[in-house]
Specification:
D-Maltodextrin-Binding Protein, domain 2; 2 domains; six-stranded mixed sheet; five-stranded mixed sheet; 19% strand; Bug_dom1; Tripartite tricarboxylate transporter substrate binding protein; BUG; signal
């Protein structure tokens, strides 16, 4: 039977010929956009996830770092991408914060969260407060006492104004009643590099990028923003245990697609991520080694988490206010 005869037979049964012609997804490489430079939390997560997806799809999944404006440039580029499943975003918890920060700065947001379809959360780690290993502060109490003696003299870095790392530090400095000098960078990776070179004094970071330097003894962790101590850093206390009950923050990573991406494509990607996070030992080992274990979440549970977390972070950004 010729292809034309098959299509006529399909039409006779009510099936659209277009369905026959539609190639299976993915039939070509799928770009995973990281809207930050290499070395930050989104990048550390994206690379083993992309490598695992390549094994499943038998297609290349290149990780493309597209930094700028604290994550806005890369994220907005995905919002404008064709909704065909061939451009995905590895986002951080700042995903909902950035449009609000644009409004605070009296600018039209470059994107809105409604332009994206959430697929799944991959990790969710409490942020860690880092200082250089040779810094004089052995504890949060030491840092706070020094900051009160020298307002504005101690610097902290971030991935940019209103970024995840900026918001986390704003929560801490507000609760402690101290004034630190904010030094924004183009991403968490450059901020961490600045910390290692002695350019800045403190940094909130996801544990993944920081863990190798903590193990090498180049950095010191003073506290974490979680409810419980991190398994990878059991000696590091939480801010909650140190008497800061409202200083709780998680830097999560999640995969999004442009809104309007066909449901079968979204479901294929979601299913692949679910199975990989549950069963792929290579992926799980890579994320564990990076200090960011799998914290997979999907569907209604992830959407509910995303909405609740976004509302809390937007409130924090509004407390920061307009940044000159």
């Amino acid at each position: 039977m010729s292809r034309r005869d098959v299509m006529l037979a399909l039409a006779a049964t009510g099936l659209a010929p277009a369905a026959w012609a539609q190639p299976a997804w993915p039939s070509r490489p799928v770009q995973m956009i990281v809207p930050f430079p290499p070395g930050g939390q989104a990048d550390v997560t994206a690379r083993p996830v992309a490598a695992a997806l390549e094994r499943v799809f038998a297609q290349a999944v290149p990780v493309v770092n597209r930094p700028g404006a604290g994550g806005i440039l890369g994220t907005s580029s995905v919002s404008r991408a064709a909704p065909d499943g061939y451009t995905a975003l590895m986002a951080l918890s700042s995903h909902a914060v950035l449009p609000e920060s644009e409004r605070i700065q009296d600018r039209v947001p470059a994107y809105t969260t409604e332009q994206f379809a959430p697929v799944a959360r991959i990790t969710a780690d409490p942020t860690v407060l880092l200082v250089p290993a040779d810094a004089p502060w052995r504890s949060v109490a030491d840092l706070v006492a020094d900051a009160r003696r020298r307002p504005g003299a101690i610097t902290f870095g971030s991935a940019g104004n209103y970024s995840t790392l900026h918001v986390a530090m704003a929560m801490f400095t507000g609760a402690a009643g101290i004034d630190l000098l904010h030094v924004p960078f183009q991403g968490g990776g450059p901020a961490l590099t600045a910390m290692l070179s002695g350019t800045i004094h403190a940094l909130a970071s996801g544990p993944g990028p920081a863990l190798p330097h903590l193990r090498e003894g180049r950095l010191r962790a003073l506290a974490s923003w979680g409810q419980e101590r991190l398994p990878a850093l059991p000696e590091v206390p939480t801010f909650i245990k140190l008497g800061y009950p409202d200083v709780e923050f998680y830097i999560w990573t999640a995969v999004f697609l442009p809104a309007g991406t066909p449901a079968p494509v979204r479901e294929r990607l979601r299913t692949a991520l679910r199975d990989l996070c549950a069963r792929d030992e290579g992926l799980r080992r890579a994320l564990d080694a990076a200090g960011s274990p799998v914290a997979f979440q999907e569907g209604e549970a992830f959407e509910a988490f995303f909405q609740a977390d976004s509302a809390r972070l937007i409130q924090a950004v509004r407390r920061i206010g307009k940044v000159d």
